[in-house]
């Protein structure tokens, strides 16, 4: 089997405790027995150290639902921001267990992304930035997919 990968970083979204999350358009071409399969979407990467990084792939067919879910999460956070609540969590998970969400206790909110076994805290105000970065990365992957299909 032959693998070809193409990835372009689109944005780096700041986290609260560590390095930024890299959002990239990602193409993976697998060639086996002269049959080519093209997978495209968005790759998230969090470089924990110089030698270890957590990464996740979000397939292109999941991204529209993900973008809608993040919109819902942001709206929910806005509506709940001034409420005193017991522990409340709003989240969305992709088929590959990439989770986006926030939790609130009393009136304190905390957004997060979870992938590759890692919980990454981000500011609530970063969720719309992460959302638009994912949309931009998908748009880039869409254009590159066309180039790969024509080869």
Distance between the termini: 18 Å
- Derived from helix and strand composition plus strand pairing, the structural class reads alpha+beta
Number of domains: 1
Q: Can you give the helix content as a percent range?
A: 25-40%
CATH topology: Secreted effector protein pipB2 fold
Low-confidence stretches: none
Query: What percent of residues are in strands?
Result: over 45%
CATH architecture annotation name: 2-Layer Sandwich
Cα shape: elongated
Number of strands: 8
Mean pLDDT: 92
Index terms:
single chain, 151 residues, alpha+beta, Secreted effector protein pipB2 fold, four-stranded antiparallel sheet, 2 helices, 8 strands, 49% strand
Question: What features would you describe in this structure?
Answer:
The chain has helices at residues 60-80, 127-149, and strands at residues 2-13, 21-32, 35-47, 53-59, 85-93, 99-106, 108-115, 118-122. The chain has 151 residues and is α+β, with helices and mostly antiparallel strands. The chain is elongated, with a radius of gyration of 17 Å. The protein contains 2 helices and 8 strands. The strands form 2 sheets. It has a 4-stranded antiparallel beta sheet with strand order 1-2-3-4. Strands 5-6-7-8 form a 4-stranded antiparallel beta sheet, covered by helices on one side. The longest helix is centred in the C-terminal third of the chain and has 23 residues, at 127-149. The protein has one domain (2-149): Secreted effector protein pipB2 fold, CATH 3.30.2450. β2 (21-32) and β3 (35-47) form a beta hairpin. The mean pLDDT is 92.
